[in-house]
What we know:
Elements: E1 7-14, H1 19-33, E2 36-42, E3 58-62, H2 75-81, E4 95-102, H3 111-122, E5 126-127, E6 132-135, H4 141-165, H5 181-187, H6 193-196, E7 253-258, E8 277-286, E9 296-302, E10 315-319, H7 324-333, E11 343-348, E12 366-368, H8 369-376, H9 385-392, H10 398-408, H11 413-421, H12 427-433, H13 441-447, E13 454-457, E14 468-474, E15 477-478, E16 488-489, H14 491-499, H15 501-504, E17 521-528, E18 543-546, H16 553-568, E19 577-583, H17 594-600, E20 606-611, H18 626-632, H19 634-643, E21 647-653, H20 654-673, H21 677-689, E22 693-698
Parallel strand pairs: 1-2, 1-3, 3-4, 4-5, 4-6, 18-19, 18-21, 19-20, 21-22
Antiparallel strand pairs: 7-11, 8-9, 8-17, 9-14, 10-13, 10-17, 11-12, 15-16
Keywords: Amino-acid biosynthesis, Cytoplasm, FAD, Flavoprotein, FMN, Methionine biosynthesis, NADP, Oxidoreductase, Phosphoprotein, S-adenosyl-L-methionine
Subcellular location: Cytoplasm
Pfam families: FAD_binding_1 (PF00667), Flavodoxin_1 (PF00258), NAD_binding_1 (PF00175)
Amino acid sequence: MRCESKRRFLLLYATQKGQAKAIAEEIWQQAGAHGFEADIHCISEMDKYNLETEKDPVVIVISTTGTGDPPDTARKFVKKIQDKTLPPDHFVHLQYGLLGLGDSEYMFFCNGGRIVDRRLQELGAQHFYDTGLADDCVGLELVVDPWIDGLWLALKETLQLQEEKEGMNNAVNPVSSSLSTAPHAVHELKLSSEVQNLKLEDEGARGSDTLSQKADDISIVAPARDTKPSLVHSVPPVSQSALNIPALPPEYIEVEFQDTQGENPHLSSLISEGTTFEVPVTKAVQLTREDAIKTALLLELDIADATFEYQPGDAFCIICPNNVSEVEELLDILGLSEKGDDFICVKVKQGTKKKGASRPQHIPERSTLKFILTWCLEIRAIPKKAFLRALVECTSDVGEKRRLQELCSRQGASDYTHFIRDSNVCLLDLLHAFPSCKPSLSLLIEHLPKLQARSYSVSSSNLYQPGRLCFVFNVLEFPACPSRPVSRKGVCTGWLAELVAPLLHPSKNSLGTKGESSLIEKISLFPRPNNAFHLPGDPSVPFIMVGPGTGVSPFIGFLQHRQKLREHHTDWEFGETWLFFGCRHQDRDYLFKQLLCFLENGTLTHLKVCFSRDSSTAEVAPPKYVQDLLRICAKEVARVLLKERGYFYVCGDKKHMAEDVSDAVVDILSMEMEADRLEAMKVLAMLRESKRYLQDVWT
């Protein structure tokens, strides 16, 4: 493609954790090589662009957060376009293509992108390119890569048609395929050979910016003797292929070590979500037996001196550090063990080719090196392909360099998914696997995302325990595997377990009783209210709770709250309450025997429990899972939902439970309504829409 001047399009991104921004930047980097100039902005920077007057095509990359919300950076934009006074032709002049990012493990897949897409359509905007919906559950790149490939063809045609309409008959080669060919191919993930074989045609482009590299541009190393591929070894055809690798991201961060001393920033300065509170841990209890498969802990926090308000069903976020030993290990590999406590200054590199480069908001301008690696960067993050591409340049061994190229290439997409993404490989794993790779500190700051605060459901009621907040969690375990030679605990749950170990196992010299100690540890947190997952506003409305394992956690708060309401308002009418709880073993991980107390005092009307791993000698096998219990109680479940307009709450694991519960409810509705499954699914959809079927789930 040759053109005297590069043709402009507007590129907007809305990101929560940096994924959408990274993809938008990849589009921006590729644009120049294809003869375009991308005017890139965060969608929140509404003073830097104006869709009301925009004449050029617009490309939007937007993620989804929570249970289906647009990211925080898109809130103002979404609020603006959802103004009901806007006429239906408000954006009739606008042509756009949208790439939505999401995770199909969650109910409202890519809902952030769908909200924006649907509203732009309602206001008259037109697609110049079909919407792409990328699924993080199977790998964003499966949609992102071909979507970007097809984008250039669609942009070329759109701008050509625009020029023809304006009478600007420039010498642009006509494109024979119809406008809809590439978009539909991308949307259905059935790429035409034309899109699959898109190659860079600009002979003047520099090699480091090219999307495609020919065989003689990349050293092809003789395949290892291993007959099966692994993180460090490839087999044909990948090992013998010419590779299409991403463009090399431009460097933009500079790090200076300083001799001066000082203090690190307060943790609250790292959080943009609102007010943070530092509160003491007053109690810790292990709810599971030592021989249980998972270790579940209950922690109690003292919030009496914090202006922290919550309702049962709300969540909150804990600001947690990376594992100390992993930080020390990373410093050692980087050759910076002696400089961990030195202060560094982080700033934008002069002359960088990255447009709009700025110091990442989560990186303080001045702090110790150890502070940044401990509190600011997600060193456990799965490396993106752009990061792998940058690591290639830091690797001296020819074989290791080739393998990293393969893992970030189009041809090595399957290997990337299997050996990096699905294996939860992190930077440390890569540096051990490829020992000649020696990245700079500035490269890590450029590519590692922000260390995210971890979200937990409240497991208490402020009516029942004033000034206290409780929560329950499993200590996550990630066993060793071929791509990750060491086992690890969860970043936050592992840290919390270590933090409260003195409370769980007080020494003989301690004055405290079990679960309490004279040693007081504090954690920093901030509220994350849930707009829907609350008790019904009308106490006379019945409700059903389904919460196996630690999924029962928010329902303890529900029942504590309901018990106090019953005590304080003896003249109120209260609807019946159902709880379906399950765990592996009755004697090892039945988390809350307190449930029986709620049953005895009438707060809980019906308690149904099951134990999936306990053996039974009964003639009829007992139910193993909560969905089995629901089917046994089918008539009562249907009565509560259909006749009494009750509520249905589900909390717990999305992948192994929530979908099975949803299927069970559909079966129950179908059977009790004497309707086909499709009709039952429509009823369930209406329950979701009216906020009477509510989920608090995780993957």
